[in-house]
Each structure stands twice: as structure tokens, then as C-alpha cells.
Amino acid sequence: RTEIQDLLNALYEKCDDHGKSEKLALQAKTMGSKAYLKKRDTEALNNFTECLRLAPVDSSLLPLAYANRSAVLFQMGRYKEALQDMDRAEQSGYPAALQHKLLTRRCHCYLILGEQDQAKASLEICKKHSEAVSPDSKEKYAKTVADLEKILANAAVSQMMNTSQEVFCHPSLFKGENTVVRYMTSAFEMSFFLQSE
User: What is the pTM of this model?
Assistant: First the structure.
């Protein structure tokens, strides 16, 4: 297996037209960032995807492009795909100094998807990471984490209320409610006869 990989690497080095270019990948990333800031999500998504296609395997642009594309996907409401790109960014060496961006975005995704257990676990990681955040980002990060904590608490209360409402719901009656006897189905008919002596 390693021999095949070594052969492929040697052939890759000799090939002039392998389609990978750090310079072109950087241009695509820059264009993606500009489009993202202008809220042109589809254009940004395409540019970050192009950056990923063009970047060499060992490029430092790969984790940044995955993270940026996850931000676009989040903005587009494609939360599961955003989570996948966050994982890819981390697996490809996303810088520790920027990690807080992925952590809070991941927690937001889980909250929106209604995955409260994962959101809670992500929030705990966010709290533990607060010491590693740079001083210039610390205040904003602390506010974001506090906001996430409030959202998670509200979601838990809301879920408890929904659960309690489900428990106390009355079953629906076949053919509606009887007009004579409350909480009885109208499919049941009651009649009585007076017997004369």
C-alpha cells in the first residue's frame, strides 16, 4: 500500500497538469471571502469549493476553506453539511487560534437541529476553550457562549413544557363529543323508556 502511494506521489510531482495550485486556491478563497461578506452565499460556496479543489493536499488553505465553507453553509441553513465541513477543517489542521469560531458555530448547528445533547456537549467544550481565546476576541466569545447557554436553557424549558402538554392531552373522540354526556363519543347513543304500570 505504501509503495503504491510512493509511486503516485512520484508521478504527481512529475505531472505539470495536476490541477493543483496554491496561488489559484488562494485567489478562490479570497473571492469566496469577499462574496461571503456581501451575503452572496452561492457565489461564496462555489469559491470555497473551488479553493478546496485547487489547494494542494498539504496546503494550509484546506482547513481554512473548509471552515469558511461551513460558515456559508450555516448561513444558508444547511446545518448538517456545515457540521461535516467543521469536522473536515479540524481533521485537516485548523489553527488552534481560530478554533473558537468552529466551536460556537457547531453548538449553534446542534441547537437549530434540535440535538440538545450534542449542543450541551459542544457548549461545555466552548466553556473549556475560553482560556485559549486571544484577548482581542475574548469578550465577544464570552458573550456568544453566554447567549448559547441561555438559548440551550430556554430550549430545555420549552421541551419540558411540550412534553408535559403531551402527557395531559385528551384523546380525540370518535365522531366527536356526545351532546348529552360530556367526554363521551357521539357514536354512543343513550335512550331510556318509561314503562307504564
Answer: 0.70
